[in-house]
Amino acid sequence: MTAPIIECQHLEKWYSGVHALKNVSLSVAHGEAVGLVGDNGAGKSTLIKILSGVHEPDGGTIRIEGREVRIRNPRQAMELGLETIYQYNSMVPTMSIARNVFIGREPLKWSLFGLGWMDRGKMDHESVRAIADVDLHLRSPEALVGELSGGQRQGVAIARAMHFKSKVLILDEPTNHLSVKETNKVIGFVRDLKKQNVTGVFISHNMQHVFQCCDRVVAMARGEIVFDRPVAESSIEEVHEFL
Amino acid sequence: MVTADRREQTPFEPRRASTSRGGSTPVKRLLKVYMERPELVALVVLVALLAYFALRSAGLFLSYQNLRGILGLFPELSIMALGFALLMIAGEFDLSIGSVFGLAPIVLCALAQHFGLSFWPCFAAALLMCVVVGLLNGFISLSFGIPSFITTLGMLFMLRSLCVVIYQSGAAPALPSDAPAWALTAPIGFFRVSTIWLAALGLVIYLLLERTNFGNWVRATGGALESAKSMGIPTNFVKTACFVISSVCAGLAGIIQVVRIASPLPSLGDGVELQAIAAAVIGGVALSGGVGNVLGAVVGMAIIRVIDSGMVMSRVDANWFKFAVGFLTIVAVIANIWLGRRARGIKVDTGK
Fold it and tell me: CA B9 from chain center: how many Å?
C-alpha cells in the first residue's frame, strides 16, 4: 500500500497567545481531491500556510509520500511538489503571462550562483503549451496578467502548477468573487486534476463548490478538524451541523 | 493545412479574431503601450521640449557649447537616477543617494590623504563604503519593517553630517594628484567619458532588469510582493541588492563629478536625490513599484536638464526651474497613477 501523499500528525500552531491549530492530523491520498471548509478563523489558512512553507508549525510532523519533512519556505514546498494558488497572491498583474508562468523558476541559458540569463524563447514557447494543457484561450503569452479576468488568472496559475509537475495543488478560495461562469471554469480545472493524477486540496467557504468537485470533505472549527468523510457519504446539511 | 493545425494547437487567439469582438480600440492600445513602455511617453515630452526651447531661444539652445554643457552634468545625475529607478521598480525608496553622492568622493580623498594611497584603491574603498550604506539601508528597512523612506531619510542626515565633519577636519582637502580624468570625465569632442560610463551602466542595468531571472524577481517583488513571496522569490535579497546598486551608482556619480570639478565639497549632491526621484517618476517608473524601465529615468533626467538649460537659454528667470520640475513631476505622477489604473482595469482581447 502506497503512503499518503500528505500526512500531517498532531500539528500545533500558536499566534501570540492564540491557539490557531490544535492537534490537527490530516492524511491525503494520491490523486484525491479534498475540500477543506470552515468559517473564518477555523484554522484552514494556518494549515495551508504550514503546508506551503509560509509558517512552520510549533509542534507535530509532516510526511510527504512517507518521508518526514520540514517545510521552511515556499520554495521548499514547491520543490516537494506542493504548489499553492492563493485567491489574490499568485500572479503579478504588471507582468506578462509568460513571465508569470516562470516566476522564480525561469529557464536559464547560463547561470552563476542561481542568477543568469533567461531563455525567453523557451518561456514563451512553454507557457503556450502550459496554457493549452488546461484548455485556456488567451491572446498572447505577452499579454499582461492584469488584463485577465479572475478565472483566467486562476487558470494560468493552475497551468503553471501543471507545467512544473506539481504533485499537490492547494487552491485557497479560488472561486471567491468570481462570476458563475468563471466559477464553473475553475471547478472544471479542479475536476481535471484527477485525470492528470494530481492531488487537490480545495479551500472554500462555498460548500456547493466543494461537493461539486471533491472526493472528500474536511471541516475545521476553532483550530480543530471536526468532520472528515467522503462526499458520497455526507451532505451539506450534515457538515453545517459541525461548524 | 499546417496553419490550420497550428491554430488548433495554440491556446492563444490571433489578434484579428479577438479585435473583431470589439475588445480593442486605439485608445486601449495606447494605454497598453503606456503600461508596457511608459518611458516612450517621456521620450515624446523630451523631443517636444527640445523643439520648444530650440525655437524659443532662436537656436541658441541647440548650440554646440550649450549641448556640451548639458552633457557634463547629465551623465552624472543619470547614473544616480539609473540605480534609484531600479530600486523604485523593486518597490523601495532611497533618499540617501544625494548624501552618498557627496560622501563617496570625500571618503576617497580622505583615504588618499591619510594613507597616501593612489586613486584606484581609494576609488574601490569608496564604492565599498557605498555597498555598506546600501546593505544598512536594506537591513534596517527590511528587518525592522521600517518604510525605506524613513530609514533613508535618517541615512541622508547622518551621511551629510559625515561629509561636513570629514571635510571641515581637513582630512579630505583635495583629489589625489593621480585622479584619472581620462577614465572618468575627460571630454571626447562633443561628449565626456562619463557618457560612456552612463551608456555602459545603462545597458548593464537594463539587461539585468529585462533579460535575467534577477530582473524578473525585481519586477515581481515590486509589482506584487506577496505573490513574489508565495512563489519562493527571496524578496529581501532582491530589495537589499537593489539598495546596494542604488547606493553604488550614487557614489560613482559623485566621484565622477568631483573628478570633473577637481575639488571635493561637503555640499556636493545636496538635493540631487530629489532630481533623481523626479527623473524616475517623469520617466514612467511607478511609485508603487513593478512598473517602469531604468532607461525611463535617464529620459526623465534628460527632461530635467533640458528644462534647466532651456530656461536659461530662453532668458526665463532661473528661479522658475524648480517650479517647472515640480509641476512636471506632479503631472507625471497623476498620469502614471491614472493611466496605470485604467490600463490595468481594461480588458484587451484576453480571450475566453
Answer: 43
Contact A231, A238 (CB under 8 A): no
Separation between Cα atoms, residue A236 and residue A222, nearest integer Å: 19
Mean pLDDT, rounded, for A187-216: 87
Write the DSSP symbol of residue B62: G
In terms of residue numbers, what domain contains B77?
Answer: 36-342
Q: What are A98-140's pLDDT values in tens digits? A: 999 999 999 999 999 889 999 999 999 999 888 888 777 777 8
Quick check: A139 and B18 CB within 8 A?
Answer: yes
CATH number for the domain harbouring residue B149: 1.10.3470
Task: Judge whether A173 and A204 are in contact, CB under 8 Å.
Answer: yes
Share of chain A above pLDDT 90, in %: 52
What ranges do the domains of chain A cover?
A: 6-242
- Which chain A positions have a beta carbon within 8 Å of B233's beta carbon? 103-104
- Superfamily for A6-242? P-loop containing nucleotide triphosphate hydrolases (3.40.50.300)
Q: ∠ CA B299-B300-B305 to the nearest 5 degrees?
A: 95
pLDDT digits (tens, 9 = 90+) for B200-237: 999 999 999 999 999 999 999 999 999 999 899 999 99
Q: Which residue of B has its CA nearest to A97?
A: B350
Task: State the total domains in chain B.
Answer: 1
Chain B residue closest in CA terms to A116: B212
Query: Residue range B107-111: average pLDDT?
Result: 95
Q: Do B307 and B256 form a contact (C-beta atoms < 8 A)?
A: no
Q: Is residue B121 part of a domain?
A: yes
Q: Which of A88, A78, A20, A87 is nearest to A51 (CA)?
A: A78
Mean pLDDT of B14-20: 41
Nearest to B212 among A76, A116, A139 (CB): A116
Q: Is residue B20 part of a domain?
A: no
| Cα distance between residue B280 and residue B291, in whole Å | 11
